[in-house]
């Protein structure tokens, strides 16, 4: 009897914590998101010196309250599942643990409490709460496109790196130390900044030849930005066409099944189906079939 009560209690707890379809589950998840956001806001405010000096104790108390609540939630999640190890070593289990530990580590490591911003990853649970799982198909399609084009992207990045080293070395020889290009690594850094069209402006060429080379690098930069996008877009379009083709074939199969069911005679008396095409009487109740 006691074992049955324990099982019932665990089932009820599991329903509240893991099932978002029930009113209690929805309330639990909404409160969880609220405290996640509150915790992130508290850490952000603590990083502002003016606010931290004035409200340090209040912010610290708020963080400890949230940390204790998350600790209790983590323990309850372990208790309410049949296989605790599966949750502990799952993606969400690891994130839940990492979002709880930093505040406790602050006793031993100064400043580690800032790591509680990892709690932002817990916002991924919003997909389950707001029923956004149907959008995961599009995200999976994008992920598969990036994975499929990884080799092309790596080759492209390697070519960009080699080009940056070559142009950086040339600029080091052309401009020299007197114009800010003090060494080759710094010149390569300038080339990458210029090639990506970021342009910090901390180093700038002064000679006519250097400015001409810089112009070429900047023009190349616009083309380089478009290449990875085009590679991934091509793979995404290929994946989308494949998905559309599979969906079309599935609809054809469903249509054929529906057609087969439609062609089958249906008895108006007992509603039995799947009679032979030339059948005159129902195989179940014996009534005459109407072929009109």
Distance between the termini: 64 Å
Our estimate of the beta-strand percent is under 5%
Overall tally of domains: 2
Helix percent reads 55-70%
| Pattern of helices and strands | HHHHHHHHHHH
Structural class: mainly alpha
What is the typical, i.e. mean, pLDDT? 79
The CATH first-level class of the largest domain comes to Mainly Alpha
Q: Could you name the key traits of this structure?
A:
single chain; flat; mainly alpha; 292 residues; Four Helix Bundle (Hemerythrin (Met), subunit A); 11 helices; Helix Hairpins
What does this structure look like?
The protein is flat, with a radius of gyration of 32 Å. It has two domains: 130 residues, Four Helix Bundle (Hemerythrin (Met), subunit A) (Up-down Bundle); 119 residues, Helix Hairpins (Orthogonal Bundle). The protein contains eleven helices and no strands. The chain has 292 residues and is an all-alpha fold. The longest helix is centred in the C-terminal third of the chain and has 56 residues. Helix 8 packs across helix 11 and helix 9 packs antiparallel against helix 11. It starts with a helix and ends in a 29-residue tail after the last helix. About 2% of the residues have low confidence. Helices cover 69% and strands 0% of the residues.
Describe the SSE topology.
Elements: H1 2-18, H2 23-46, H3 49-80, H4 84-88, H5 91-98, H6 101-105, H7 126-129, H8 136-148, H9 150-175, H10 184-195, H11 208-263
Helix pairs in contact: 1-2, 1-3, 2-3, 8-11, 9-10, 9-11
Summarize the structure.
This protein is mainly alpha-helical.
């Amino acid at each position: 009897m006691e074992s049955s009560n324990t099982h019932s209690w665990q089932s009820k707890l599991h329903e509240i914590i893991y099932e978002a379809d029930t009113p209690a589950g929805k309330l639990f998840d909404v409160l969880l998101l609220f405290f996640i956001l509150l915790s992130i806001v508290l850490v952000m405010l603590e990083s502002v010196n003016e606010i931290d000096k004035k409200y340090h104790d209040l912010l610290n108390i708020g963080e400890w309250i949230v940390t204790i609540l998350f600790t209790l939630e983590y323990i309850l999640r372990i208790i309410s599942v049949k296989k605790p190890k599966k949750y502990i070593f799952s993606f969400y289990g690891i994130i839940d643990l990492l979002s709880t530990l930093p505040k406790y580590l602050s006793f031993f490591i100064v400043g580690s409490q800032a790591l509680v911003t990892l709690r932002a990853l817990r916002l991924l649970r919003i997909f389950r709460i707001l029923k956004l799982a149907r959008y995961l198909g599009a995200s999976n399609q994008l992920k598969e496109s990036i994975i499929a084009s990884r080799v092309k992207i790596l080759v492209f990045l390697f070519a960009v790196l080699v080009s940056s080293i070559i142009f950086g070395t040339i600029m080091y020889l052309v401009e020299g130390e007197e114009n800010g290009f003090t060494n080759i690594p710094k010149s390569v850094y300038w080339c990458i900044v210029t090639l990506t069209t970021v342009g910090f402006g901390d180093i700038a060429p002064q000679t006519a030849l250097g400015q001409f080379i810089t112009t070429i690098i900047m023009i190349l930069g616009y083309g380089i930005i478009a290449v990875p996008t085009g590679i991934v877009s091509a793979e995404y379009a290929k994946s989308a066409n494949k998905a559309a083709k599979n969906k079309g074939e599935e609809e054809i199969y469903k249509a054929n099944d529906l057609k087969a069911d439609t062609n089958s005679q249906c008895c108006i008396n007992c509603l039995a189906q799947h009679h032979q095409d030339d059948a005159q009487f129902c195989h179940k109740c014996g009534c005459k079939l109407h072929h009109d």
